C-alpha cells in the first residue's frame, strides 16, 4: 500500500478507466483486430514490393497511408465508442450514485473519461510506431507532415471522444441509449472516413503545409473543433450533475462565450476578406445554430430549483444580470432572444460598416436576409415553447417539447409542398411559401426585397404573437430570481450567514408522531 | 447531540406523494431503524438524506448542514450504502476501495491508513486481490460498508444492508453496525428483518404510505401502543374458576382463553403485577405459569401499519 507522492494527484477516474480498459474485452479485441489488420496489410505490401525492382516514393506514401488508416480506425472510431460505453457503464453497474456523492465533481468525471481515452489512444500510437517508422524508412513521407497528421488525429480523436461522452450523458434510458449508440456509430464512421481522407491528402500532398491558405483553414477548423469540444465538455459536465443541481448555467455561459468568439472571428474575417453576401450567409448560419441551444434553454422547467434558489446573488444588480443565465424556460427564452438580437445587431452593424466603405445602401438583400432569419428563428422556438411550457416539468414531455421545434419546422415547410403536389400548385410544390423560412430569406437575398410584403407581415405578426405568449413566463421567471435574491438577503441579514437555519439543539423526539 | 435531523420533508413523483411531512432525528452514537412495508417511502427518504434527491418541501440537516444549501458539506460527513451494490467489472477489492478513497479526496498516508482501517474493520484484508465479481453476497455487503466508511463519515445511511444475507453473515453484519455506533456514528438503517433491528436499534421510525406512523425509542412506542400489559396465566385449577377469580380483581381487563390458559390485560406497575400473582396464589388457584407477553418490534410494526401500497 505504498503511495508515491505523484500517485495521489492522478484523476481517480483516469486510473480506474485505464485499469478497466486494459482488462476489458472490448479494448483487447479491438487492439488485436487492428494489429492483425496492420500486419496483414504490411505483409501484403511487402509481397508487392518483392515483385518491384525498386521501391518508389509513392509506394512508401501508400504504405504509410495504409498503416495510418488502420490507426485512424482505432483512435477515431474504437476509442470514442469505448468512451461512450464507459459512461454508460456507470449507470449499468449502479455506480453513478456512488460517484456523485463522493468528492468528485462532474467535470472531473468527464476529464477522467477523456484522459482514459487519451491513454488508450497513446497505447494504439505506441503499438503503431514501429510500423510508421518502417513506412518512413521506405521514403516518400515528409516527417513534418507525418507529425502534423498524427497530432491532428490525436486531437480529432479527443474531440470525437468528448462528443461521444456528451452523447452518452444525454439519456439513462436503455432504449434511448441504444438509439444514441447507433447515431454515434454512424457519425464515427463518417468522421473516420473523413479523418483518413484528410490524413491521406496531407501525406500525398506534402507541399500543402507551405500554403498560407492551408493554415487559415486549419485555424478555422481548430477553432470550430475547440468550440465543439468545449460545448460537449460543458454539456457532459452539466448532464452528469444531479438532475436537481443547476445543469443549465454552465451551458448558457459557454454558449454565450462561443457566440462572442464567433462574432469576434466574423468581425476579423469581415474586415479582412468577407463581402456583404458572405457576411449575411455566416450570420444566418449562426442564427440557425443558435436555435439548437435556444430550444433546450426555452423548454427547461420554469422553477429555479431548491438548490439554485439559495445561490441566487443577494445583490439586486447581480441578480438582474444573472437572470438569463439561471435555469428555467422563461429565462432561457430571454437568453435566446438576447443571443438572436446580438447576432442580428452585429450582422446589421457589419453590413453598415461595409456599406459605408463601399457607398452601398444600408438595407440591402443581405441585411434583410439576416432580419428574416432572426424572425423565423424566434418564431419557431418561442411559439412552441410558450405553448408547451406548462408541461416541461416532466422529463418525457420536456423531451417531446424539444422535438416539436424541428418537427414544426419540417411540418410547416414540407406539408404545404405535399399539398401543392396534389393541388398542382407549383409555388407550394417548390416550397415557395411562408412556412419555409428559406423562401423569404432567399427571396430577399436574391434581390426581391420588397416583393413579399404580405409574407413579411405574416411572419412579423406571428413573431409578435410568440413574444406576447411568452411575456407572462418571462415575467414570472424574472420575479422568481428577485424573490430568491431577496429571500437570501433576508436570511443573511437575520442570521449573519448565507445558510438556512441550523437544526434546533436537542435530542431525538421520543413522542409518538401518529398518522 | 443531533447528527441527523429530517425536518418535515415531502416528496412527490408526479401525482404520487411518496414522502409526506416526514420528520425524525438521530443522535450521534445511535442506531435508528427505519421500517415500513415495500413502497412506503424509505428509500426515497434515504436518498434525500444522501443528497441524491431533493425534497419538494422541508429540509434535512447533517451535523447542521442543509442538503439544500450545502450538499457537498453533507456528502463529506455522510456515508450512504444503497440497497443495490454498485461494483465495477474487472476490479479487485483493493482497487475498488482505493478508487473510492481517491474519489473522496484522501491522499498519501491518510488514504493508506483509511484503506487499512476499513479493510481490518470489515475483515477484507485477506480478499484484497480478489475480483469483486467473485465475492459472496455477504462479502460484497462488507465491501460496500467499507467503501461507505472510507472518509470517516459521522452519519451512515444503510439501505437494506442485511437483505439476502445468510444468518451468519447477518449476525456478523449486525455486530459491525453495533461497533460503528460505539465509535460515535449516527446510523440510519432500514431493514425488513425486524427482530434484528430491535436488538440493535436505539430508536425507530415506522413509515407507511409516505407518512411516519411512529418515531422514538422502541420501549416508548411499545408503552404508548400497549398501555396494558398482556398476561398469560395457567393454573392447576380449572379455567372457569380462574376466570371468575380474575374478573373481580382490580386493574384486570378483558379475560380470554388461550390454548390451555387465560390471557388478560392488566394495568399496573411491575409491583402491582407481583401483588396480583400473590393474590392469585392466596386465592388457591395454584398458578403454574404467569408471564407477561413481550411486545416486540414486529408487533409494533403490525399494529402501526396496514400494508398500504402506494
Q: What distinguishing features does this structure have?
A:
heterodimer; A: 515 residues; mainly alpha; 2 domains; B: alpha/beta; Rossmann fold; 4-stranded antiparallel beta sheet; 14 strands; 36% helix; 29% strand
Question: What features would you describe in this structure?
Answer:
The complex is a heterodimer of chains A (515) and B (310). Chain A is an all-alpha fold. Chain A folds into two domains: 16-210, no CATH class; 248-494, no CATH class. Chain A contains 17 helices and no strands. Chain A has helices spanning 12-23, 25-50, 57-92, 96-100, 106-137, 143-168, 174-204, 212-240, 249-272, 276-298, 316-322, 329-358, 365-388, 395-423, 426-429, 437-445, 453-495. In chain A, helix 2 (25-50) packs antiparallel against helix 3 (57-92), helix 3 packs antiparallel against helix 5 (106-137) and helix 12 (329-358) crosses helix 17 (453-495). Chain A is globular. Chain A starts with 11 loop residues before the first helix and ends in a 20-residue tail after the last helix. Chain B is of the alpha/beta class. Chain B has two domains: 2-223, P-loop containing nucleotide triphosphate hydrolases (Rossmann fold), CATH 3.40.50.300; 227-293, 2-Layer Sandwich (Alpha-Beta Plaits). In chain B, 36% of the residues lie in helices and 29% in strands. Chain B is built from eleven helices and 14 strands. Chain B has helices at 42-49, 71-76, 93-103, 108-121, 137-149, 167-182, 194-200, 218-225, 239-247, 270-282, 297-304, and strands spanning 2-13, 16-27, 31-35, 57-62, 65-66, 78-81, 155-159, 186-190, 203-208, 211-216, 229-235, 252-258, 261-266, 287-292. A six-stranded mixed β-sheet of chain B has the order 6-7-8-3-9-10, sandwiched between helices. Chain B has a four-stranded antiparallel β-sheet with strand order 2-1-4-5. Chain B has a four-stranded antiparallel β-sheet with strand order 12-13-11-14, covered by helices on one side. In chain B, a hairpin with a 2-residue loop joins strand 4 (57-62) and strand 5. The mean pLDDT of chain B is 87. Classes of the chains: A mainly alpha (515), B alpha/beta (310). The interface between A and B is large, with 49 and 71 residues.
Amino acid at each position: 500500500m505504498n503511495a508515491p507522492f505523484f500517485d495521489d494527484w492522478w484523476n481517480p477516474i483516469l486510473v480506474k478507466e485505464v485499469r478497466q480498459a486494459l482488462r476489458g474485452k472490448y479494448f483487447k479485441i479491438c487492439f488485436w483486430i487492428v494489429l492483425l489488420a496492420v500486419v496483414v496489410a504490411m505483409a501484403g505490401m511487402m509481397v508487392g514490393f518483392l515483385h518491384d525492382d525498386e521501391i518508389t516514393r509513392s509506394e512508401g506514401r501508400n504504405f504509410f497511408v495504409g498503416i495510418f488508416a488502420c490507426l485512424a480506425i482505432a483512435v477515431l472510431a474504437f476509442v470514442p465508442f469505448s468512451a461512450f460505453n464507459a459512461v454508460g457503464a456507470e449507470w449499468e453497474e449502479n455506480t453513478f450514485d456512488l460517484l456523485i456523492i463522493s468528492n468528485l465533481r462532474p467535470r472531473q468525471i468527464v476529464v477522467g473519461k477523456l484522459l482514459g481515452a487519451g491513454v488508450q489512444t497513446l497505447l494504439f500510437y505506441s503499438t503503431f510506431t514501429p510500423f510508421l517508422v518502417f513506412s518512413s524508412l521506405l521514403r516518400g513521407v515528409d516527417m513534418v507532415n507525418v507529425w502534423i497528421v498524427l497530432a491532428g488525429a490525436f486531437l480529432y480523436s479527443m474531440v470525437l471522444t468528448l462528443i461521444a461522452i456528451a452523447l452518452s450523458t444525454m439519456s439513462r434510458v436503455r432504449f434511448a441509449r441504444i438509439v444514441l449508440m447507433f447515431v454515434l456509430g454512424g457519425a464515427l464512421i463518417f468522421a473516420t472516413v473523413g479523418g483518413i481522407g484528410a490524413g491521406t491528402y496531407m501525406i500525398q500532398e506534402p507541399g500543402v503545409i507551405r500554403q498560407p491558405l492551408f493554415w487559415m483553414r486549419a485555424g478555422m477548423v481548430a477553432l470550430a473543433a475547440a468550440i465543439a469540444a468545449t460545448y460537449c465538455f460543458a454539456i457532459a459536465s452539466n448532464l452528469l450533475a444531479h438532475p436537481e443541481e443547476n445543469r443549465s448555467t454552465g451551458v448558457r455561459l459557454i454558449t454565450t462565450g462561443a457566440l462572442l468568439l464567433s462574432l469576434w472571428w466574423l468581425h476579423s474575417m469581415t474586415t479582412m476578406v468577407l463581402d456583404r453576401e458572405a457576411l449575411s450567409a455566416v450570420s444566418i448560419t449562426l442564427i440557425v445554430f443558435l436555435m439548437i441551444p435556444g430550444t433546450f434553454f426555452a423548454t427547461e422547467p420554469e422553477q429555479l430549483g431548491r438548490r439554485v434558489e439559495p445561490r441566487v446573488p443577494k445583490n439586486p444588480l447581480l441578480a438582474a444580470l444573472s437572470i438569463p443565465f439561471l435555469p428555467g424556460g422563461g429565462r432561457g427564452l430571454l437568453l435566446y432572444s438576447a443571443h438572436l438580437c446580438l447576432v442580428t445587431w452585429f450582422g446589421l452593424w457589419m453590413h453598415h460598416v461595409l456599406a459605408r466603405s463601399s457607398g452601398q445602401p444600408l438595407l440591402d438583400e443581405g441585411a434583410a436576409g439576416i432580419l428574416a432569419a432572426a424572425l423565423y428563428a424566434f418564431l419557431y422556438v418561442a411559439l412552441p415553447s410558450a405553448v408547451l411550457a406548462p408541461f416541461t416539468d416532466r422529463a418525457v414531455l420536456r423531451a417531446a417539447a424539444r422535438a416539436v421545434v424541428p418537427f414544426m419546422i419540417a411540418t410547416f415547410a414540407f406539408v404545404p409542398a405535399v399539398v401543392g403536389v396534389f393541388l398542382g400548385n407549383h409555388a407550394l410544390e417548390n416550397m415557395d411559401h411562408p412556412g419555409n423560412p428559406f423562401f423569404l430569406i432567399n427571396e430577399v437575398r436574391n434581390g426581391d426585397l420588397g416583393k413579399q410584403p404580405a409574407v413579411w407581415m405574416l411572419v412579423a405578426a406571428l413573431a409578435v404573437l410568440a413574444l406576447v405568449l411568452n411575456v407572462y413566463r418571462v415575467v414570472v421567471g424574472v420575479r422568481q430570481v428577485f424573490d430568491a435574491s431577496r429571500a437570501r438577503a433576508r436570511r443573511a441579514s437575520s442570521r449573519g450567514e448565507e445558510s438556512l437555519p441550523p437544526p434546533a439543539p436537542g435530542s431525538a423526539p421520543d413522542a409518538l408522531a401518529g398518522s | 447531540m443531533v447528527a441527523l435531523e429530517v425536518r418535515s420533508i415531502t416528496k412527490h413523483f408526479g401525482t404520487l406523494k411518496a414522502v409526506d411531512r416526514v420528520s425524525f432525528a438521530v443522535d450521534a452514537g445511535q442506531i435508528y431503524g427505519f421500517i415500513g412495508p415495500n413502497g412506503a417511502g424509505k428509500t426515497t427518504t434515504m436518498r434525500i438524506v444522501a443528497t441524491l434527491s431533493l425534497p419538494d418541501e422541508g429540509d434535512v440537516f447533517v451535523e447542521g448542514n442543509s442538503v439544500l444549501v450545502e450538499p457537498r458539506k453533507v456528502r463529506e460527513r455522510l456515508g450512504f450504502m444503497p440497497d443495490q451494490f454498485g461494483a465495477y467489472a474487472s476490479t479487485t477489492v483493493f482497487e475498488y476501495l482505493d478508487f473510492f478513497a481517491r474519489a473522496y479526496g484522501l491522499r498519501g498516508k491518510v488514504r493508506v491508513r483509511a484503506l487499512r482501517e476499513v479493510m481490518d474493520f470489515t475483515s477484507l484484508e485477506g480478499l484484497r486481490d480478489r475480483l469483486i465479481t467473485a465475492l459472496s453476497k455477504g462479502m460484497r455487503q462488507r465491501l460496500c460498508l467499507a467503501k461507505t466508511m472510507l472518509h470517516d463519515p459521522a452519519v451512515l445511511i444503510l439501505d437494506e444492508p442485511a437483505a439476502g444475507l445468510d444468518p451468519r453473515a447477518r449476525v456478523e453484519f449486525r455486530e459491525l453496525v453495533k461497533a460503528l455506533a460505539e465509535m460515535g456514528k449516527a446510523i440510519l438503517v432500514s431493514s425488513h428483518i425486524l427482530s434484528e433491528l430491535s436488538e440493535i436499534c436505539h430508536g425507530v421510525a415506522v413509515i407507511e404510505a409516505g407518512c411516519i406512523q411512529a418515531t422514538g425509542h422502541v420501549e416508548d412506542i411499545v408503552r404508548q401502543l400497549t398501555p396494558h400489559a398482556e398476561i398469560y396465566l395457567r393454573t392447576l385449577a380449572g379455567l372457569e374458576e380462574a376466570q371468575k377469580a380474575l374478573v373481580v380483581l382490580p386493574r384486570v381487563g378483558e379475560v380470554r382463553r388461550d390454548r390451555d390458559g387465560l390471557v388478560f390485560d392488566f394495568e399496573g406497575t411491575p409491583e402491582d403485577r407481583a401483588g396480583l400473582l400473590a393474590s392469585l396464589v392466596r386465592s388457591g388457584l395454584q398458578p403454574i405459569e404467569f408471564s407477561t407477553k413481550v411486545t416486540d418490534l414486529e408487533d409494533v410494526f403490525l399494529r402501526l401499519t396496514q400494508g398500504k401500497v402506494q
